[in-house]
Design brief:
Elements: E1 5-9, H1 10-25, E2 30-34, H2 42-50, E3 55-58, H3 61-69, H4 74-77, E4 81-83, H5 92-98, E5 101-104, H6 107-120, E6 124-130, H7 141-152, E7 157-164, H8 176-193, E8 199-201, H9 208-213, E9 224-227, H10 229-233, E10 251-264, E11 287-293, E12 305-306, E13 312-316, E14 321-324, E15 335-340, H11 342-350, E16 355-359, E17 369-371, E18 374-376
Parallel strand pairs: 1-16, 2-3, 2-9, 3-4, 4-5, 5-6, 6-7, 7-8
Antiparallel strand pairs: 1-10, 10-11, 10-15, 11-14, 12-15, 13-14, 17-18
The protein binds pyridoxal-5'-phosphate.
Length: 377
């Protein structure tokens, strides 16, 4: 089989997505399945929808377009697509054409969305993102009411709700305090303008502990989370702990050995910068076994790979991953498997040099849909 390849177990992804959809439904929270790490994979999108996510979210309009167009699958064709990164002015027409909702923070952008939606004869829904401390995207809370007033005056734009995103730039944890602020802001908008916000989107996979761990937590007005990593890798991103009952090995990276030799553990000669600028100090351990795998920094984040027991990653360049094998000697042509963290996964999924193979034992998984009373088969 082709190498390198990502082996993707759709049953495990289905299990993870379904478990999170059910557990969060008990708290009145729906799930938007985030596909940005999956490069618009129709197989993964389909699996998430089968498992009961209410919409698909992606940061790239190109991925949303690919999912919209690549398939005859009615589940995907009729899915609600949320653009989770603020639209670029240069992509407004595509955003209106392919996304149902977009996350926004700039009135200038929303005005352009309004003009374009009018031109295309559509209504575009928006979530206004609020800054609650992580200092990535978001309108400052004190400017929110003024922004809402401007947005409500724009034709062909529907204010669907508000949202926030934490733990991405600065690692600010979602907690009772910042989530309560989000709920209060939702209520302030509703009373000020006499309207109802359908969606209060509390965040990403980093919200899992806040939403699920303590059954006493009041989740307030938050009724949606946008989940990628928690579903795909079964772990929460604050401490990178596995989530109870979820699979952490839905993805396996398979690589192929192209050289296997015994070499000195220390380089010889004058040491300057390596290909990627870092200088490495290594201790002399004499002659060691060393193998090279045909994959590199352009395909994966080497620090995000988890090697099988006994195998150690020694270094990497663009196209080579150098490992020290365990006791058993590796032969040229042998395959070595790795588990991946989020950053290694994103790069592997988006590298055209890594082929993707999907497995699923479940022919037709049950279809669930989310409503206010929880999960309905
Ligand atoms: C990436 C992203 C998500 C999903 O993040 P995960 O940690 O993978 O769950 C949600 N919302 C926004 C705005 C994002 O950029």
């Amino acid at each position: 089989m082709a190498a390198p390849r990502l082996e993707i177990d759709l049953d495990k992804i289905y299990h993870n997505a379904h478990a999170l959809v059910s557990r969060l439904a008990e708290r009145g929270i729906s799930v938007t399945g985030v596909t940005k790490a999956a490069l618009g994979s129709v197989e993964i999108a389909n699996t998430l929808l089968q498992a009961g996510v209410i919409s698909l979210g992606d940061s790239r309009i190109e991925n949303i377009k690919a999912m919209r167009l690549a398939t005859e699958n009615p589940l995907i064709n009729n899915a609600m697509f949320l653009l989770i990164r603020s639209p670029m002015l240069s992509q407004i027409a595509q955003v209106i054409q392919y996304a149902d909702i977009s996350c926004n923070t700039e009135v200038e952008v929303i005005k352009k969305l309004s003009d374009e939606a009018h031109k295309q004869g559509r209504t575009h829904q928006i979530l206004l993102m609020v800054e609650l401390g992580d200092l990535r995207e978001g309108i400052l809370p004190e400017n929110l009411i003024d922004t809402v007033r401007k947005v409500l005056s724009l034709p062909n734009i529907l204010l669907k709700g508000i949202g926030t995103n934490l733990a991405c730039r600065s690692g600010v944890a979602p907690d009772a305090t910042n989530m309560a602020v989000l709920s209060e802001l939702a209520e302030l908008i509703e009373t000020t303008f006499d309207l109802t916000l359908d969606i209060v989107s509390g965040g990403n996979s980093a919200n899992i502990q806040w939403a699920l761990n303590d059954t006493q937590t009041d989740t307030g007005r938050v009724n949606n989370l946008r989940l990628g990593e928690a579903i795909l890798l079964g772990c929460e991103p604050l401490q990178r702990q596995a989530i109870d009952g979820l699979y952490t090995d839905a993805f396996t990276l398979v690589t192929e050995v192209i050289e296997s030799k015994s070499k000195p553990s220390q380089p010889t000669g004058t040491i300057e910068q390596s290909a990627f600028g870092e200088t490495t100090a290594v201790t002399d351990r004499g002659i060691v076994a060393q193998a090279i795998l045909a994959i590199g920094i352009q395909d994966i984040d080497p620090s995000g790979l988890q090697a099988p027991a006994g195998i150690e990653v020694l270094g990497a360049s663009s196209d080579h991953l150098i490992i020290e094998p365990a006791e058993n000697e590796l032969l040229v042509g042998d395959e070595v498997c790795f588990q991946l963290n989020y950053s290694a996964l994103v790069r592997a999924m988006t590298s055209p040099f890594v082929s993707k193979t999907y497995t699923s034992r479940q022919d037709t998984p049950l279809t669930y849909s989310f409503n206010k009373n929880g999960l309905q088969p």
